[in-house]
Structures
1.
Amino acid sequence: MTTQQFDTCTLDNGLRVVVQSMPGMQSAALTLMIPAGSVYDPDGKAGTTAILSEIFSRGAGDLSARELSSAFDNIGLQRSVSGGVGYVTVSAATTADRILDAVPLIAKMLLKPHITPENFAPSRELVHQALNAMEDEPKQRLGQYLRRCSYPTPFSNPSEGTMEDLPNVSIADVQSHFDSLIIPNDAVLGIAGNVDSAEIQQALADAFGSWKPGTPRQLIAGAVTPSPMHIEHDSAQTHIGLAWDTVPYIHDRYFEAWATVSLLSGGMSSRLFTEVREKRGLCYAISASINTQKEMARVFGYAGTTNERAQETLEVMVAEIRRIHECITEDELQRCKARAKSTLIMQQESTMSRSSSLARDTLFIGRVRGLQEIRDMLDALTVDQVRDFAIEYAPKSMVLVTIGPESLDTTCVS
C-alpha cells in the first residue's frame, strides 16, 4: 500500500483540518463535515436541514446561482452538499492542480449562501418532491420508521424531513439553522490527493479564516417510538425491517461487531443470503448493516418478500440472527477479511473516499485510522473473539417494522 502521511492543524476559529498527501494520484478531494444535521431540526419542523442543503448551491456572495455553478464547472469540480442526520457534509473533487482554485469558491458557498425567499420556495419544493418519491419506495420508508423505533429523539430525526412538518418550516427557521449551526466549532475538513500540505493549509486559512465560531448546541435524548410497528400498504410484497443494539465506531470492539454483521450479510456466501434466500427461496432481497452514530449504533436488517412467505421469512431471519455465534469457521472469517481488504484497497485509490474517512475518523474517534492500522486490526481478529462478541451482544429483543397489507406475528422478536 502507498505510504500514508497525515498532517493536521486547527484554524484560529476552531476548524480542524486533516490532510493526506497522495503523490501518486492525479486528483484531490475534500470533505467538510459540520455538526448541523437533522438532529438539530426544531420540533415539528423536520426538513429544515434538507431545505438549507438545497439552498447552498443557489448562489453565494456576489455570485448568482448560474455564476457559482459556472465557476465550479470551469475548474471541473464535482461537488455536493448533503444534509444527513448528524452532519451537513460538503464533498468536492477535481484534478489536483485545480483544488486550490476550488477552496475559496467552496468557502464562499458555505459562508455566504443566498437564503432568500426566491431560493427558499424552490428548495422546499425539491424536498417535497423527494418525500413524495419516498411514498412510492416502501424500502426507504421502512428505513425511516426503523430509525424512529431504534433511536431516541432527536437522534431518530429523518434527514429527508416529513410531509407533516415541511409546511411548518419557514425561511426564518432555515436562516436560524444556518446562523446557529453552520459554525466551525467541532467541524472537520479532510483533504486527500496529490497536494502540498502546507500550501493547502494556507489556502484553507485564507478562505475560511473569516468563518466566525459560535456556541455548539447540546442534544438531550428523548423518547423512542414503540415497536413492533406495522404500516399498512396495499401491495403484493411485504417489507421487513429489524434492528438491534451494537457498538459504535468509536468502541474498542467495533471491528468484532463489523465481523459479526459481515458473517450475516457480507456477500453471496453470507448466512442470511445463503439460508433465507438461496436455500429456502423466501425473499428476493435480504441484508444487514451497521448504522453508527458517534456514541450509539444499531444493526439494521431488511428483507423484501411476498405476502404469503412474509411470516416464514421473518422467523427464519430472526433464527439466523440469534444463532450467528454458532459454528463460526475460520473460512467464513477469512472471507470477511478478504472483502474488507478489497474495500480498503479501493478506498486507497479514491481521493473522495479517503477525504471522507479523514473527516469521519477525526470527528468520531479524534484521530485518523490509517489503512494499514485497519488492516492490522482486521488481521488480528480471531474466530473466538467474534464468537464471544456475538454471544455477549446477542439481541435480547429486536425492533420490528413491517410494511405490507397485513401485520405479522411478532412473538419471535421478543
Note: The chain has a mean pLDDT of 95.
2.
Amino acid sequence: MTKPPVAYVASSTRPDHPEEACAVFGIYAPGEDAARMTYFGLHALQHRGQESAGIAVADGNSVVATKDRGLVTQVFSESTLASLEGYIAIGHARYSTSGGSNSWDAAQPHLSTIDNEIIALAHNGTLVNTDSLRVQLIKRGVSFRSSTDSEVAAQLIGDFTRESHHMREGIRRTMELIEGAYAMVLISPQALYAFRDPHGIRPLCIGELPDEGGWVVSSETCGLDIVGARFVRDVQPGEIVRINGVGAQGLVAEQAVPARTRALCVFEYVYFARPDSVLNGLSVYASRDAMGRTLYQEAPVEADIVMGVPDSGVPSAIGFSHASGIPYAEGVVKNRYVGRTFIQPTQTLRQRGIRLKLNPLPATIAGKRLVVVDDSIVRGNTSQQLVRMLRDAGAAEVHMRIVSPPVVWPCFYGIDTDTQDQLIAANMSVEAIADYIGADSLAYLSHEGLLSCCAGEDTGFCTACFSGEYPVRLSEAMRATSFCGSLEPRFWDQSAPE
C-alpha cells in the first residue's frame, strides 16, 4: 500500500466527518410552557451539537437561564424546566468551534446586560473577525467570561443598544461590524429576535404555532415539526426578525444589512441536517437519495450489496442501490445511545478495537463484495477502521463511495474541519487514500454532481471545503495558520475583516 506523506498524520481521536454545527431554537408563545417546548425543539436538533445545552426564558420582566455541559436530556430535568417560567425562550445545543473550550462559560445562551435589563443570545456559526473586536471592547472596559465569538456579538449588541436605546438598532449596527457565519436568536424580557448573516451560510427558519398561538424559529424545520409549528419561511440573509406578539402583527422584519450572494453551507444537505428537514424548499432526504443515484452514474462498480454508514450515508446508499440494481442491506448496526461520551476509551481499549458506535453484521457481509456509501472522508482514520472491521467480518471486497467531493480546504464558518495538514485529501491522491484506508476502490461525487442534487429555491452554496472559494475573506492570521499547500484560497468578498 502507498504510505501517506510524512506531513500527514491523522488524529486518532477525531472522526472522519466534519464535526457538527450548533443548533438554535426560539419561541414566543403566550399561554404555553416555552421552556418545555424549547426543550423538545433542542431534542429534535440534538444531532447538531452534543457538548452542551442551554435554555433562557423571559416572562416580560426578566430573563433567566440554565445551561451546562452534556446532552439536552442530561442538562434538563422536570424540576429544572419547571423553574424556567416564561412565554419567550431561546435554546442552544453546542458543538464547539471558535472558542473551542467545552467549559460552562462557553455554553450558550450567553447572558449579558443592557443597563438593568438582561438579554440572552444563542449563535450557530463562527465569526472570523472577533479578535480585533474583542480588543476594542476590552479597551472600552468590557470584561469577558469566555473566549467565544458569540459573547463578542452579545457585548456589541449591548453597547450599541445602550447608545441607540433600540434593540433592533443595536443588532443592526453589530451586523454591520461582524463578519462570518451566524444564525442568531436573542431574547429581551419582552421580545424574541432572530437574525442571519448576509450570505445565509447557516440555516434559520420561521414557523407559526396553530390558532395564533405564537411563533417559533429553528435551525431546521424538524425543530418546528416537533412542537407542531407550521413552516412559514426562512429568515432571509441579512435580515432581522422581531417577534413581540402573536399573529401576523406580532412579527416585524427588516433588512438590516444588504444581502450578499447566497452561500448556504452545502454540507447541510450532505451531513448536518436531519433527513426529515427541508432546506430551501428541498427535502434533505430527497437530496441525499439523489446524491446516491448520481454517484452510481459517475462511479459504477460491480458488487453484491450496497450498505450505508449510519445515519447520514443511508439515504444515499438506498439511492445508489435503486440506480444500480444492487440490493441494499444493513451491514453495520449503530449504537444510537452513545452520542458524544465524556468518558474516553483508554489506548488499550482503542487497540482492542472498541466499537462504541458501529458493529458489523457478519451474516450479511461475509463473502460479499460491498459498496459502502458514506457522506465524507475528512481525516481518514475512522474510514480506515471501518474498512478493517468489514474485512475482519468476512467482506470479500470493500468499495468506498463518498457522496461529496474530497474535503481539501478547512472551514471557518461553523464546522470544525481542522487545519489543512489534517485533511487527508489535501495531502494524498484518491488512489493513495484508497490504499491508506484499505479499500479496493474509492470514488467521490463530483462538485457538479453534488450541486445538481441540492438545487432548491433561491439556491447558492458555500462549497469552500471542496473548492477553496470562500464567501467571506479571512484575516491574515487565519490564513497563515490554516493552509499548508501551494494553492492560495480565493475569496468572494474582497474586503478583509477588521
Note: The radius of gyration is 23 Å.
